[in-house]
Amino acid sequence: MVFVEFSYVAMQLKRTCRIFANRRFAILISCISVTLVLWSIMRRKSNLTAEELEVVITNLRVEKLKKELKRQVDSVVSSELRNISFRSEDDYEAQIRQDEAKKVPGLGDDGVPVILRGEEAKRAEELMKVEAFNILLSDRIPYSRKLPDARNPKYLFFVPCCFLK
After folding, report:
1. DSSP code, position 109
2. Closest C-alpha among 49, 44, 38, 32 to residue 6
3. Which of 52, 60, 115, 148 is a Cys-bridge partner for 48, taking CB atoms 3.0 to 4.6 Å apart?
């Protein structure tokens, strides 16, 4: 008996999909027809009240909708991930070379302050308001500049115990 009802639902689903071009509407109709079949089967098998049966059917619908929503979200996320272009190592190397070209050798060595004049000073002031640090000089000072040791001479050779482990 159950097989006959499900084959009827499958036949109805095929007809519904042919009639309605909108897939969502066809899915909705198929969910309703499957729900009705399940309701009739459950009604025969158990002595549930109409309210209890409604709760069971609603839970089944919610589970189906969750699965459908998860499938849609997964498809959107996977398509978005496919659209992300990954940078190659050559792009990073080019960016590093470009950054190194901006550096001025010897600028700020031994902690000597760098003073900007004219247009550069005005531009640095404007950027300081936006960035909260002098990005103009930061881009020009080399990474490998020499700095004086600012430690107290008594502690020049002191090694904290946390580094001895």
Report:
1. G
2. 38
3. 52
Between the CA atoms of 50, 53, 59 and 65, what dihedral angle is there, to the nearest 10 degrees? -80
Mean predicted confidence (pLDDT) in 119-139: 90
* CA 127/CA 70 separation, integer angstroms: 46
User: Side chain identity at 79, as an amino acid letter?
Assistant: S
- The residue to which tokens 């409604």 are assigned: 54
**What digits encode the pLDDT tens for the residues 142-151?**
888 888 888 8
Query: Could you report the per-residue pLDDT of 10-38, keeping only the tens digit for each?
Result: 555 555 555 555 666 667 777 677 777 77
**How many CB atoms lie under 10 A from the CB of residue 34?**
20
Spatial separation of the C-alpha atoms in residues 108 and 147, rounded to whole Å: 8
- What is the C-alpha separation between 125 and 119, in angstroms, rounded? 10
Domain ranges of the chain: 2-83, 93-147
CA 125 – CA 122 distance, rounded (Å): 5
Alpha helices in the chain (DSSP H): 2-19, 23-45, 50-83, 89-102, 119-131, 135-140
Three-class secondary structure of residue 37 per DSSP: helix
Contact 20, 26 (CB under 8 A): yes
